[in-house]
TrEMBL record, chain A:
It comes from Paracoccus benzoatiresistens. It is a multi-pass membrane protein. The keyword Lyase does not apply. InterPro entries: BPD_transp_1_N, MetI-like, MetI-like_sf. The lineage of its organism: Bacteria, Pseudomonadati, Pseudomonadota, Alphaproteobacteria, Rhodobacterales. Keywords: Cell membrane, Membrane, Transmembrane, Transmembrane helix, Transport. It comes from the Bacteria. This is ABC transporter permease subunit.
UniProtKB/TrEMBL annotation, chain B:
The chain crosses the membrane at residues 30-51, 98-124, 144-170, 259-281. This is ABC transporter permease subunit. It comes from Paracoccus benzoatiresistens. The keyword Transferase does not apply. Keywords: Cell membrane, Membrane, Peptide transport, Protein transport, Transmembrane, Transmembrane helix, Transport. Residues 96-285 form the ABC transmembrane type-1 domain. PROSITE patterns: ABC_TM1. Pfam families: BPD_transp_1, OppC_N. Gene3D superfamilies: MetI-like (1.10.3720.10). InterPro entries: BP-dependent_transpt_permease (IPR050366), MetI-like (IPR000515), MetI-like_sf (IPR035906), OppC_N (IPR025966).
Amino acid sequence: MVRFLLSKLLYLVPTFLGITIVAFGFVRILPGDPVLLMAGERGVSPERHAELSAQLGFDKPIVMQYLDFLGRLLQGDLGNSLVTKKPVLTEFLALFPATVELGLCAIVIATLVGVPVGVLAAIKRGSWFDQVSMTSALVGFSMPIFWWGLLLIIFFSGYLGWTPVSGRISLMYFFPQGTGFMLIDSLMSGQDGAFASAVSHLILPSIVLATIPLAVIARQTRSAMLEVMGEDYVRTARAKGMPRRRVIGVHALRNAMIPVVTTIGLQIGVLIAGAILTETIFSWPGIGKWMIDSISRRDYPVVQSGLLLIAGMVMVVNLLVDLTYGLINPRIRAT
Amino acid sequence: MSNTEYLSTAAIRRQMLAEFWFYFRQNRGAVAGLVVFILLVLTAVFALLLAPHDPTTQYRDAFLLPPVWQDGGRAEFLLGTDAVGRDMLSRLIFGAQYSLFIGIVVVAIALVGGVIIGLIAGFFRGWVDAVIMRVMDVILAFPSLLLALVLVAVLGPGLTNAMIAIAIVYQPHFARLTRAAVMGEMRREYVTAARVAGAGNLRLMFKTILPNCLGPLIVQATLSFSSAVLDSAALGFLGMGAQPPSPEWGTMLAEAREFILRAWWVVTLPGLAILVSVLAINMMGDGLRDALDPKLKRS
């Protein structure tokens, strides 16, 4: 297992270096002078330009610039935002819990609904339940989620008036951001109705973000279950006279879950892409909206570091998925 | 080549097609998807004839008119008008052109690029393979929409750049798939036989091996087609894809956002068009996979 872990970690090094090159190169290949770009419309005097170039290291050879960038990165210095002047890492860490909270809720919904639906559809293969659920899954998989979000807003916020349109909590409530997770903070604040407000703000964005992972998980669970249920050991268990429920619950489900766990883990990339759209629609103050705003404001240090942080995060999660896969499926470790 | 030989290849091809159609037809959803897709293609091709109005003409006397069946709707604007008085139906019809065009261009670039890269990696192995696959890993480490967004920010917003960005992001999937298929085929006897017979590298790669790797690539191409339609609509929605006043469905949705609580049709209809097209292509993809994947045929 240690060797497996080490080989996976070693494998990540070139990929991570590649990611840093992409993030570093991104600002360099922008058309025009980076100093002028950063100065914005007001422009700078030639003296200030030279000073800024030296300060930012643009007067050095490109390889040196990259090594400097890498050095600063290793020290945790990701630069400052051009707009707010705050360190990018500080901004990222302040907004990150909002995206994690949304993403976790979405993946919990997707798993809690997707796995049972997939299992049931496999057990009752060909039934109306199978057909309806798999057609719905295909619709969910094909859903433009930015439109789906708007539809839910029209119906639940506009027509029924049940849920708020945007934000994380009603402006009526004030309490310290202890954990950054609104559900926990609102609960700890002890204020009447704060938790309910946080839940009502969270529910629509979570459903929207959960839609595609839910569809993928349901389809994957169904096909994994079908495959496993055709295996010899399941037939043997049945032939032994074991109750059907136990065969499905213990023998089939446990083995079918192996690819499903991987699928759930791999949804992180989908979740982040989805978070960009979901957070924009619901004005959810998280990483996705932060990236979109920074791209449209041409706040390049934020875009550069945001890319790096997000790709790094996806990489780490993928590594964890690989390791879990190795843990639950010993056959993988050997290869 | 003799005449009989020619006939026999044609016959084999016919038989393969018949077999393909047999399996494809089994999946009723796939056939329905195909029908919708053909309708979509016809709509796009004959948009000029079908659309009752020009998609960009603004009728000053008809702002936000509801569809004809609602109070206040007018017969000349069957599906109503948008905030600046353009006919929704005509814009939706012309939008089909955008979606199909985007899908075709993105898949073509990603497929050709990915197949060549994958062929080279799988055929030559060694350091070439290692370098290529690491580069592909780097691209795959970024969430696709995010990378496309950043690429568009670099290249400048617009439809062409959006398509290039999406194609770059999709390329690794084709490269990986081709590489895996090529590595599987390389061990087969017919490849060794061709090599012994004196076939050069290029001939081996493109004429001997590639045709036998096409099955999974076709399935991936269909899936990428629908993802391309979705992602380009998402880019349009975020203001980074096709620019107004083009009747691209995602861009139409972005323009309609502020009217969501006042005029349901400007929001609902473009999204519905995206959903129906993507769904049809995905249903077709499911059928293609069933028909082209020998592993699934048995079950």
